[in-house]
Amino acid sequence: MAASPAAQAAQKFTETYGALVTGGPKTLPASGSGDIFLVTGGRVIITSLTGVVTTVIQAQACTISVGNKPTGGSSSTTSLSAASASVSGLAVGASLAVPQAKASALMFSGADGTLLWNTSSGAQGVAVTSGGLVIVPAGSIQITTSATNTGAIQWSVTYVPYDAGAVVTAA
Amino acid sequence: MWDCPCGCMSIAGSLTSCPMCFKEREMPRSVAGAQPSNQNAQPHEPGYIAPEPEPAEAAPEPVEVQPEPEPETQEPDTDAEARQWARDHGIVIPDDSPVPEYAVQAWLAGTGGD
Question: Which segments within A56-138 are labelled E, that is strand?
């Protein structure tokens, strides 16, 4: 039986960018870090890491950054993105993304949810790349906030196992 | 010497019939080629060979009683379990797609397949 177009598209997507994992909406951690994904079984290549606001972010200054906290080694968190600009009042539907450029700030869009590959200022926008953004060891992928804001974001990651058996699941 | 059933006694062995009643001498029956010499001999007559008893009618073969089959234990639907577990953990799997290997790996890593 031939696979449906949707199934074929999903397979093509997986072949190109890796497995897609989308967690449930997560409220923002209160002035600290919270896990959004768990990496187990070895290293994975992250090919994209994005989010979409599902509950409006409280209108008060707050930044968000993304990092990886390995279970072994130093166990210290490594930044996958620098802190974003303030997400105060970010509307439902707004997109966030870890940029490809090293040490760049977590990017986010307006309520239209569109993040360009390249912004008018020349900085890179959302990256979904088969080449990978970063390789991360087993551990957790976290977001860190600078304040205690209400609001929720649903995060997605695409990845390819680098070590056999390495997987990512939503935290 | 032989005696005739008619009562005449001590008839010479060379005579094959009774000189009084002319009844032929009863000769002992012999079995030749597994056949009686006189197939008409009655049970009370010499030479009678009792027929081989007919083999008893073959008993019906015992019917092997098959034990009641054990109710089939339902194999756990690992595919469905893996799919559900994967979805619960954020792994996106379209409804009409097979559970991808990485999702099965994640399920096994997360649950041991239980």
Answer: 64-70, 78-79, 95-97, 107-108, 134-136
Note down the domain range covering A165. Answer: 18-170
In-domain check, residue A150: yes
Residue A96: pLDDT band by 50, 70, 90 thresholds?
very high
Among chain B, residues having any CB pair with chain A shorter than 8 Å are: 89-94, 96-97, 100, 102-103, 105-106, 109-110
**What is the reported pTM?**
0.67
Q: Is the ipTM of this complex over 0.85?
A: no
- Contacting residues of B for A4, CB less than 8 Å apart: 94, 96
Out of A4, A22, A165, name the one closest to residue B90 (CB): A22
Those residues whose C-beta lies under 8 Å from the C-beta of residue A91, and which sit 6 or more positions away, are A53, A56, A110, A111
Q: How far is B66 from chain A (nearest CA, A)?
A: 40
In a domain, A104, yes or no: yes
CB atoms within 10 A of CB A146: 16
Question: Domains in chain A: how many in total?
Answer: 1
